Structure formats: structure tokens, C-alpha cells
């Protein structure tokens, strides 16, 4: 006789349907617990990943910031302790420190110019300051129209004499949203896009973020924004030729603040320029006649031709007065100014860095012999220190007095303002952060005119 196994009390008294329900509830509980556990694991993984990405982004950002600080440090040192007989001394040092490593990241600083990549900051004095530009100079730009050039000039000057095209204030106020024309100097290059008729494509070209750097999305044949031709050359549109940041005068060859000639003392001029008492007096007489004279006239006027009123004569006024040597005259332009030093003025273009094609166009505009451009380009490239003074242009026979004054009005051999594009990259995930800073070394401490992160 087969005897059945005795059942437990709970099994004996529980209906069969309820037993199945309990099993289902247990299974569902286990499933939900598994799902919750998996969700917690995924959430924890995501939070950990986000945490690592945040750390790496911070590392990349501070690497980029370290690059900016390195460039600012070099500029500050060379402003205090300049090398006046080498126009590229500061640039070479900044190039040497344009890339480096930090903890967990690295940085590199570069710019693209005339089809080539260069390490180091971009010299903005290689461009024409739009606040100095004339109608005929603006018309040198590709796709520039007379009415647009006229509107640009009217934007920065309420008293601009219109060529018949000037957009009235009412036009800007009728836009949605409305805005007022500045009627003052442009504060940034991007501000040009507020002017009627200026399109972003004309101003920015392929350099949509205005960083002066050939980024991957600007050299992919238009696969990503912005549209580009993928030829390895950055077409920056008008921004390759124009700026609004450059500042005149500024850094000197001695490292001292620029000397305001109309109020300078004889001993100060003697010390700065390295001249005798009578020479210093003649220079001061010339400098105090601010209504008639400009410092650039000394390029074509010997100081022996300056009379007691500070006027330049057509023949020697003091035959006993020894004229300035080329080195002394170079110091005049490196150390002195006839403009109030507390008033910021738009900067001039640096003959050492201005684009070759633009230099040729400008000299043709000034009706200069084409050989003048060849000679200037040869002088700036034939010697590693570049052009250190406009005085060197006097060695070019084709440059007559009138052209010399024109060149001195628009050009210099020194630069105050640079744009730094410092890109930090994490060693882990490769995340990148770029800092773009526009730096002005015309005064100490150095000023940051623009700062962007992207």
C-alpha cells in the first residue's frame, strides 16, 4: 500500500489558485527588483560618465586658460623689457610656448593666415582698423558695394558726408527689434553685421566663429556648417582684412610709457632719444605746434629746418644744428607721441604682418610704383628681425616724400593687439574647450578687450 507524504499545514489548507498567484507575485517582485537594480546601475554609470566628462571638460578649460596666461605673460615681459632692434622677438617667444601640457590635458594656440597655419596668437595689426578706413579702402574688399561702404562710414560717424546712399536712422528703428546706430567707433568686428547691407557671409566667410583658426567644420567641403570649399585654406571674408580692436602708439622701445611731446621736458627727450640739448629743443618746438605738425613729418623734415615757432622751413633754419641719425629718428617714433596718451586711437597696420595682397592693393591705391611693394616685402622677409622702423623705408629710392607721409599715416612696425585662440584638449576622452581672447598690450597691466569660450 502506497502512503502519501504528509503535507504541511499551509499547503494543506491553501487553495490551488492562490498558490499560483503567490508564485506569480514573487516572480513579478523579482523582475521589478531586477529592473530597478538595472536602472540604478545605468543611472550610476551615466552619472559617473557625466562626472568624468565634467572633470575632463574642466581640465580642458584650464589647459586652454593656461595657454592664454602664457601668451599674456610673454606680452607683458616684452612690453616691460622690449627688444627694439628685433620686431619678431616677442612673436618668436610666443610661438615657442604656443603648445604645452597640463595635468590631464594639453593646449595649443594657433591661427591661419594666407593659406598656412601658424603657432601663436594672431597679430590684429595685420588688418585695417575699420574705424580708420576710408571709402576707397573699403572698396578694395571683395563683394563690397558703394552703398554698403557708405553705410559703414555713416554708422561710426553721424557727420559723415553721404555719397547719396546713407541709410537713415529711421531705417534701423523700423526693424524688429529696432536699434540705434552707434554713431561712434565700432567696438568689435562682429558689430559690422548690424550695418545695413552687411551680410554675415561677406564678413565671416568660412570663419564663422571669427577665431582666425581653420577648424575641422570649416574645411570639410560643406558637410557641416558653415559651407566651405574644403581646400585647406580659411577664407575669412572681410574679417581677414578688417578689425576694430587695434590701438595706436602704446608699447615703446624703452619699456617706459610713451612720452607726450607737447608737454615733454628737455631732459626727458634727451634721455629717450639720445640727442643733445639743442636737438631736443628743436624736437620739442616742433611737437608743441600741434595745430600744424604731425610726428610723421620728421621722416621728411630735418630738425635743422625747424624754426623757433616749430614750423618746418624749405631751407635750413639753423645750420649749426646737427640732424638726427637714423637710429635717433627711429627712437622718436618708438618713444614719442603728439596725441594725448590717455585718448585711445585706432591702430595702424604693421608692415611686417599685413597681408601681401592687401599691401599691394593699398600701395596701388596710393599710386605707388609697384616696385615699392616688392621692396617692402623683401625688406621684411630678408632679415629675421623684420622691419624695426619706418625710417628703413627711406632707403627705397622710389618712395618720395608724399608717399612716405602716406605710408606713415597708415602703417607702423609695432603691434599692440593680438587675438589668442587657445584650444585645450583632455587626454582622456579628447573633449575640447576653446578660449578666444583679444589682448591689448598698449598699456600695463595688459587689458582683455574680448573673451569668449566655446
Order of helices and strands, N to C?
A: HHHEEEEEHHHHEEHHHEEHHHEEEE
Helix tally?
13
Number of β-strand runs: 13
**What profile does the largest beta sheet have?**
7 strands, antiparallel
Based on CA atoms alone, the radius of gyration comes out at 33 Å
Shape, per Cα inertia axes: elongated
- Helix percent band: 25-40%
Please report the distance between the alpha carbons of the first and last residues.
89 Å
Strand residue percentage: 5-15%
> What value does the average pLDDT take?
88
Seen as an oligomer or otherwise, the chain set is: single chain
Helix- and strand-based class?
alpha/beta
Model regions low in confidence, pLDDT < 50 over at least 5 residues: none
Descriptive overview:
This protein is α/β, with parallel strands linked by helices and 454 residues long. Among the domains are: 51 residues, no CATH class; 79 residues, no CATH class. It is 37% helix and 13% strand. Strands 1, 2, 3, 4, 11, 12 and 13 form a seven-stranded antiparallel sheet that branches. A hairpin with a 6-residue loop joins strand 12 and strand 13. Helix 2 packs antiparallel against helix 3, helix 8 packs across helix 9 and helix 11 runs antiparallel to helix 12. It is elongated and about 125 Å long. The N and C termini lie far apart (89 Å).
Describe the structure concisely:
Helices cover 37% and strands 13% of the residues. It is an alpha/beta fold.
Amino acid at each position: 500500500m502506497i502512503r502519501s507524504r504528509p503535507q504541511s499545514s499551509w499547503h494543506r489548507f491553501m487553495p490551488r489558485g492562490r498558490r499560483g498567484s503567490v508564485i506569480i507575485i514573487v516572480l513579478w517582485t523579482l523582475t521589478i527588483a531586477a529592473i530597478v537594480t538595472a536602472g540604478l546601475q545605468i543611472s550610476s554609470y551615466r552619472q559617473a560618465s557625466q562626472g568624468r566628462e565634467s572633470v575632463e571638460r574642466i581640465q580642458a578649460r584650464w589647459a586652454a586658460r593656461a595657454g592664454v596666461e602664457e601668451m599674456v605673460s610673454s606680452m607683458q615681459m616684452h612690453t616691460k623689457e622690449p627688444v627694439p632692434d628685433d620686431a619678431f622677438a616677442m612673436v618668436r617667444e610666443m610661438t615657442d610656448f604656443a603648445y604645452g601640457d597640463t595635468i590631464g590635458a594639453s593646449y595649443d594656440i594657433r591661427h591661419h593666415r594666407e593659406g598656412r597655419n601658424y603657432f601663436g596668437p594672431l597679430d590684429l595689426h595685420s588688418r585695417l582698423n575699420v574705424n580708420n578706413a576710408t571709402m576707397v579702402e573699403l572698396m578694395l574688399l571683395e563683394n563690397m558695394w558703394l552703398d554698403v561702404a557708405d553705410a559703414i562710414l555713416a554708422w561710426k560717424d553721424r557727420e559723415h558726408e553721404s555719397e547719396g546712399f546713407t541709410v537713415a536712422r529711421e531705417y534701423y528703428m523700423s526693424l524688429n527689434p529696432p536699434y540705434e546706430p552707434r554713431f561712434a567707433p565700432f567696438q568689435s568686428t562682429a558689430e559690422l553685421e548690424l550695418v545695413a547691407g552687411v551680410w554675415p557671409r561677406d564678413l565671416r566667410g568660412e570663419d564663422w566663429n571669427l577665431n582666425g583658426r581653420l577648424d575641422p567644420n570649416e574645411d570639410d567641403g560643406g558637410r557641416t556648417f558653415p559651407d566651405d570649399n574644403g581646400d585647406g585654406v580659411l577664407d575669412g571674408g572681410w574679417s581677414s582684412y578688417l578689425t576694430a580692436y587695434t590701438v595706436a602708439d602704446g608699447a615703446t622701445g624703452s619699456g617706459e610709457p610713451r612720452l607726450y611731446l607737447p608737454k615733454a621736458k628737455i631732459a626727458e627727450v634727451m634721455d629717450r632719444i639720445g640727442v643733445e640739448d639743442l636737438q631736443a629743443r628743436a624736437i620739442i618746438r616742433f611737437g608743441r605746434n600741434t595745430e600744424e605738425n604731425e610726428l610723421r613729418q620728421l621722416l621728411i623734415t630735418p630738425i635743422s629746418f625747424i624754426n623757433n615757432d616749430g614750423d618746418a622751413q624749405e631751407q635750413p633754419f639753423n645750420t649749426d644744428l646737427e640732424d638726427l641719425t637714423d637710429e635717433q629718428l627711429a627712437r622718436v617714433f618708438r618713444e614719442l607721441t603728439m596725441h594725448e596718451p590717455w585718448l585711445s586711437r585706432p591702430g595702424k597696420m604693421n608692415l611686417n604682418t599685413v597681408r601681401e595682397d592687401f599691401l599691394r592693393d593699398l600701395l596701388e591705391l596710393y599710386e605707388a610704383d609697384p616696385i615699392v611693394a616688392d621692396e617692402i616685402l623683401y625688406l621684411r622677409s630678408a632679415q629675421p628681425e623684420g622691419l624695426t622702423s619706418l625710417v628703413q623705408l627711406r632707403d627705397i629710392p622710389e618712395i618720395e616724400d608724399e608717399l612716405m607721409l602716406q605710408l606713415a599715416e597708415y602703417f607702423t612696425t609695432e603691434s599692440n593687439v593680438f587675438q589668442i585662440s587657445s584650444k585645450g584638449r583632455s587626454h582622456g576622452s579628447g573633449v575640447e574647450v576653446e578660449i578666444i581672447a583679444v589682448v591689448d598690450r598698449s598699456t600695463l597691466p595688459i587689458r582683455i578687450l574680448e573673451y569668449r569660450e566655446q
